[in-house]
Each structure stands twice: as structure tokens, then as C-alpha cells.
Design a protein that fits this description.
It is a single chain. The chain is built from 14 helices and 20 strands. By secondary structure, it is α/β, with parallel strands linked by helices. The strands form five sheets. A ten-stranded mixed sheet has the order 9-7-5-2-10-1-11-15-19-20, with helices on both faces. Strands 14, 16, 17 and 18 form a four-stranded mixed sheet that branches. Strands 3-4 form a two-stranded antiparallel sheet. A hairpin with a 2-residue loop joins strand 3 and strand 4. It binds inosinic acid.
Length: about 425
């Protein structure tokens, strides 16, 4: 049975939640391996629209086991709120949600540091984070003074660990700004209360996953954010603080690379980005506005308007190389229905030279100019199309060309938010793996 990773291939918000929800009925387990409440995975089921921040998008399949892995970071108050919301909507996670005892906790003090970093930065250095405390929590993890979920089980030992934060450089920074770092025991008591609420779900998820895989269960790995926001391979420093590429699922869940059958990259038919950093194909005029309005391109987590532009084939090829995609999903194809012409960036130009890959230097990336190919638009409402062979030839040509540029075949096309608005290409690698 296949174990497949679903990974964002651009700057996040590619529609991973929809695809994970759609495919999850073919899997026993859906597991998230990195990121935290900076993610906002939207799933539309009939009239209901859900925004998930921590919980994997497989949660809507009542039989699916869902795992929040050790590579994630969690805001416990927000996670409890999210679980309460699901419960009110009749979605029961008891006995099937497993949260890693090794995942790091976003303490309120770390969230405040995120806000301070952003407010003290100037326009050139501000990352435009989601202000959810993600960066400071991963910093604390790497600096080895972070708290893991298991550390919250005992108030006294949690107090001592938190004291290292409140009395250490993090606390000093807040005090220098005239703020209080807080009482470690009080912070520990509150965190312990939250821990008790979640305790029935807290487990050694790496052991469970390896056992389930040994028993022949199949796992869908759910990535968050996108490859261009990867801490190592994205447009550093304008990235998130975790590794977002498929390889991160091994460390983020505690399983071996040989467990993974393949990886599907999720792309939009165009490009969007929130926050700062280079975006060579960004459209600042009417075309960008048209994409934003037609695609409802406003952040699920923050409500911020997303920067919009044409499909960036250079970034896409780069993402395919480092993730070795076995297929691509092109979501939100219907957003381009209204355009007379659609463009694809096939190379960059810098200083009179043509670049075929992403420059490492963000300063260079800020200056590159996109080299475009122009294709005729299909000028047809695709939202009602349900089969590959019903797609207009111009739309199929665009998809074919995208596949060539990306370096992997297009296996799925999204033409709307509903579950049934996804068109699978017959005979693709994904279709063969899942008998679609
Ligand atoms: P952070 O992850 O909140 O630290 O934000 C770092 C960068 O990643 C900022 O540019 C954010 O806008 C971006 N980012 C983080 N999470 C997401 C996401 O789920 N979708 C899109 N962008 C994201």
C-alpha cells in the first residue's frame, strides 16, 4: 500500500488541505510533520467551510487516524479551541487523534517575541510572519531551551524549565522593552491545565506510526506552508522556521525515508505569496487584482491580502528537484477562466544573463526579471467540469505545458473548493497508486 506525501510546492496556500481531505479516505492515517498554527488549511464540505491550523485535514474522515508529529509546534490554547470547534461541528476525534509528546509548545512569551521581532524590524528586514510565535519556538528548540509537550506533565519541573526562559535572554528582551516576562509557576500551571485537556491524545507517535506501517497501514503525510518557505531551501531569510519539503517528514515524524512511496506537489495555476521576500512574477496592477478577487486570495490565518502573480516555472522546477515529485496537483485552475491570455515564467534574467534556477542570494532574487511564455486563455467556466476529457483543449495544453516546465506530470486539477471539483488524470502515477 502506498504512503504518499502531499507537499506545498510554492509559497504555501496551494490548497493542500483540500487534496488531503479528498485523498484521506484511501489512507488509514494522516500525519502532519512540521509547522504550527501559521498554517491555515481550508476544507469545504458541502455548505460547511473549516479552517484547520494544527489538526491534519484528514480529520473529516471518521475512520482516519490523525497524527500531529514531533516536528510541529503547538499553541495549546488554539489547539484546544480548534478541537472544541470540531467537536461542536460533530467531528469526533476521541481515540483517533495522536499528538506527539515530543512536539514543542508555543508559550505565550514566545508569541510575544515574534510580535517584538516584527515590530522592531524595518521595512527591509521584516519577514511578515503570521505572528503565531513560530520563529521564536523553533529558535528555542534549536537553542535547546524549548519545552516539549511531555515537559508539561509535571508543574514543578515545567516551572524550572520555564524559569530558564523568563530569567534568560528571552525574559531580558521583554524587560528591556518595559514588559514583564511573567511568573514561571503561573505559566507552568496554565500550560499543565492545557496539557491535562490534551493528555488522552498525547502519545509516542513515532512508535505508533512505525508499528502501523509495519502492520501494513498506509499513511498520507500532510505538509504545511510550501517549499519556497523552507528554512534551508526557500528564499532565506524570508521563510518560515521549519523545513517544509518532503524530506522533513522523516525527522518530523520519526520514520525512515524508505517508508515513503512517493510525493505529490501541490501548485496553484498561478502564484501567491504572503509576507515579505522575492516574488519574481508578482503582478501589481489589474491582473494581480483580478487573480486576488477571483481566487479569494486572502490569508486563512491572518486575513492578509496575498501577493498574486503568474505561475513561476523556475521556482516550480526547483521544488520538483528537491522533493522529487511523482506528480503535480494544479489547484484553482478556474481562477484563470476569465483571462484572454495566461503567462508562465520559464526563466529569470539577471544582469543580462539568463538564470534557470533560483539564486541563493535574496538580493539577486529581488532583482531578477521573469522571462514569460504566453498561452491563450480557455475563456470557459471550468467549475462544472468533472472529467479530464471535458477540459477545453486550451486548458489541457496549458496543463501539459505546466507539467513539462515543472518536470512532473499533472495528476489532478482543482476547479473549485468542493470535494467533487477535482479532476484526476486517468493513468497518472497517483491514479495508479490509489486505483482512482
Ligand atoms: P511564520 O511561519 O509565521 O514565522 O512566517 C514566516 C513566513 O512564512 C511569512 O512570510 C509568512 O507569511 C509565511 N507563512 C507561514 N505560514 C504560511 C502559510 O501557511 N501559508 C502561506 N505563508 C505562510
Amino acid at each position: 500500500m502506498p504512503n504518499i506525501a502531499i507537499v506545498g510546492a510554492q509559497w504555501g496556500d496551494e490548497g493542500k488541505g483540500k487534496i488531503v481531505d479528498l485523498l484521506s479516505d484511501r489512507f488509514d492515517v494522516v500525519a502532519r510533520f512540521q509547522g504550527g498554527p501559521n498554517a491555515g488549511h481550508t476544507v469545504t464540505i458541502g455548505k460547511d467551510r473549516y479552517a484547520l491550523h494544527h489538526v491534519p485535514s484528514g480529520v473529516f474522515r471518521p475512520d482516519a487516524r490523525i497524527v500531529i508529529g514531533n516536528g510541529t509546534v503547538m499553541d495549546l490554547a488554539k489547539l484546544i479551541e480548534e478541537l472544541d470547534g470540531l467537536s461542536e461541528a460533530g467531528i469526533d476525534v476521541s481515540g483517533r487523534l495522536y499528538i506527539s509528546d515530543r512536539a514543542h509548545v508555543i508559550l505565550p512569551i514566545l508569541k510575544r517575541l515574534d510580535a517584538m521581532d516584527e515590530s522592531e524590524a524595518d521595512d527591509a528586514t521584516r519577514i511578515g510572519t503570521t505572528l503565531r510565535g513560530i520563529g521564536p519556538t523553533y529558535q528555542a528548540k534549536a537553542a535547546r531551551w524549548g519545552l516539549r509537550l511531555a515537559d508539561l506533565a509535571d508543574v514543578d519541573s515545567a516551572t524550572e524549565l520555564i524559569r530558564r526562559i523568563t530569567d534568560g535572554p528571552a525574559g531580558d528582551r521583554l524587560r528591556a522593552a518595559g514588559e514583564e516576562a511573567g511568573d514561571p509557576e503561573q505559566i507552568a500551571r496554565q500550560a499543565n491545565e492545557q496539557y491535562r485537556r490534551l493528555e488522552p491524545h498525547v502519545s509516542e507517535t513515532s512508535m505508533l506510526l512505525n508499528d502501523w506501517l509495519d502492520e501494513g497501514m498506509n499513511v498520507l503525510f500532510e505538509g504545511a506552508q510550501g517549499t519556497m518557505l523552507d528554512l534551508d531551501h526557500g528564499s532565506y531569510p524570508f521563510v518560515t522556521s521549519s523545513n517544509t519539503m518532503a524530506g522533513a517528514l522523516c525527522t518530523g515524524l520519526g520514520i525512515a525515508p524508505t517508508r515513503v512511496t512517493g510525493t505529490i506537489g501541490i501548485f496553484k495555476a498561478y502564484a501567491t505569496r504572503v509576507g515579505s521576500g522575492p516574488m519574481p512574477t508578482e503582478l501589481e496592477g489589474a491582473e494581480g487584482d483580478e487573480i486576488r478577487e477571483r481566487g479569494h486570495e486572502y490569508g486563512t490565518t491572518t486575513g492578509r491580502p496575498r501577493r498574486c502573480g503568474w505561475f513561476d516555472g523556475v521556482a516550480a522546477r526547483y521544488a520538483t528537484r528537491i522533493n522529487r515529485f511523482d506528480g503535480a496537483c494544479i489547484s484553482l485552475m478556474d481562477v484563470l477562466d476569465s483571462f484572454d491570455e495566461v503567462r508562465i515564467c520559464v526563466a529569470y534574467r539577471h544582469d543580462g544573463r539568463k538564470l534557470d534556477s533560483l539564486p541563493a542570494s535574496v538580493a539577486v532574487a529581488e532583482q531578477v526579471e521573469p522571462v514569460y511564455e504566453t498561452h491563450p486563455g480557455w475563456k470557459t467556466d471550468l467549475t462544472g467540469v468533472r472529467r479530464w476529457d471535458e477540459l477545453p483543449q486550451t486548458a489541457r495544453d496549458y496543463l501539459e505545458r505546466l507539467g513539462q516546465i515543472i518536470g512532473t506530470e499533472v495528476a489532478v486539477v482543482g476547479v473549485g473548493p468542493e470535494r467533487d471539483q477535482s479532476i484526476f488524470k486517468p493513468g497518472s502515477w497517483l491514479a495508479r497508486q490509489l486505483d482512482l
